[in-house]
Amino acid sequence: MPGFFRSLSYLRLKCEACVVRRFANRAQRDGYTSELPTQRQLIKIPSRDTGRRIRIWVYPHLDWNRSPRRPAMINWHGSGFVVGGFGLDHVWCTEATYDLGMWVIDADYRKAPENPFPAAVHDAEDVLRWVSTRPDLFDLDRVAVSGFASGATLALVAASTLRRADHGLNIRVPVVFYPITNSDIDPARKIPSQRERSVPLPIRITRFFNKCYVPNRDDRLDPRVSPDLGDLESFPDHAVFITAEHDIFAPEGMTLADNLRNGHRTVISYMVQGANHGFDKDRRGDDFERRRATAYSVAREHLDNALQAVALGFPQLALAGPPGDAERLRDLLVLGYRGTNRHRVPRWVYNSRLRPRAN
Predict the structure, then answer these.
(1) For residue 331, is pLDDT > 80?
(2) Which of 77, 137, 231, 331 is deepest in the core (most CB within 10 A)?
(3) Cβ-based neighbours of 41, under 8 Å, separated by 6 or more
(4) CA dihedral sign, ordered 257, 263, 268, 271
């Protein structure tokens, strides 16, 4: 009988999730565009589960054709761990690629209630492992992670708990936008610095997301769900927090930023005034472009400082658009790195099954 009620509860959550996803998809339609040309490539990398792949958008730096190896940033989109949103951070990824001359990997992850915790964390870890197998492309000593909302939670987990697992990556900085850092606190108790009439995430929806992703309340104390409850010494020496004044998650993001300041760590905490959760995706209002541009500029500046990234130095290339051949770029990404020691790396991280199809 308990199993029967669990099945009914899951079916109800799934039906509600389908409705929420439908409305979310309509609201997100305008968020995928960027004025900058890009040569991003969609590929699928192996996961730890046999036969399953993880989608990633790879944004190459403009000079990849002549000098492929550069710093890398891995980004995860917001979703409440329930709705879609893969590709929604196209503007952020494109601008980071252009301005900093680095690779950007925009990664997807499984959603609840079909795939509750720790599915999303496992997918994030699998992406880190794939990046670690490509030292021919990525400078593994200069890696950053970024994310928005629930994706920011994954970025914080990657920069702390997963970072301690030593995947061969030196994650130097997490750059997070309006993160959720403590899911054990009831949303009704989360009060923003300033309230606003328009609330993009009602308390009922936030509770619904939590119920889908972490149905077991004890799991909400896990640092992989609530990074604020983990070992703060596991974080790197740089961190960037971008919060929004009207967001109910802003206080906990600022609290984690304050807790990370220990005298030797550089922590940037920037609050966007008059903005709410998801402000960089919501095109309503006259200040949308200004707020997004300012927040992204602050994040890129400190990301550059943390990575000590090599400036691109070829402004004429930016005007001409990304160089190189898209087919050659795809070949470069999907063919396995021949210099990897196959005896020391798990078999599932290889991309050998993703060779381009013959015409």
Answers:
(1) yes
(2) 77
(3) 57, 58, 60, 326, 329, 330, 333
(4) positive
The three-state secondary structure class of 143 is strand
Q: Please write the tens of the pLDDT for every residue from 57-105.
A: 999 998 898 889 999 999 999 999 999 999 999 999 999 999 999 999 9
| Burial classification of residue 330, based on how many CB atoms lie within 10 Å of its CB (0-12 exposed, 13-18 middle, 19 or more buried) | middle
d(CA 326, CA 356): 12
* Whether pLDDT at 179 is above 80: yes
Residue 143, exposed/middle/buried by CB under 10 A (0-12, 13-18, 19+)?
Answer: buried
Going from N- to C-terminal start, the domains of the chain cover 2-354
Neighbours of 305 (CB within 10 A): 14
156 has pLDDT over 60: yes
What CA–CA distance (Å, rounded) separates 82 from 44?
21
DSSP state of 110: -
Q: Work out the number of other CB atoms within 10 angstroms of the CB of residue 13.
A: 19
43: CB partners within 8 A, 6+ apart:
55, 56, 58, 330, 333, 334, 351, 354
**C-alpha distances out from residue 41 to 58, 103, 109, 110, 174, Å:** 5, 12, 17, 20, 24
Structure confidence at residue 191 as a pLDDT band (50, 70, 90):
confident
Q: Is 80 helix (H, G, I), strand (E, B) or coil?
A: coil
Q: Determine the Cα–Cα distance for residues 218 and 213; give it in Å rounded to an integer.
A: 12
CATH of 2-354, one of 3.40.190.170, 3.20.20.70, 3.40.50.1820, 1.10.260.40: 3.40.50.1820
User: Which range has the worst mean pLDDT, 27-36, 170-179, 262-271, 281-290?
Assistant: 27-36
DSSP character string of 266-328:
EEEEEEETT--TTTTT---STTHHHHHHHHHHHHHHHHHHHHTPPP---HHHHHH---S-HHH
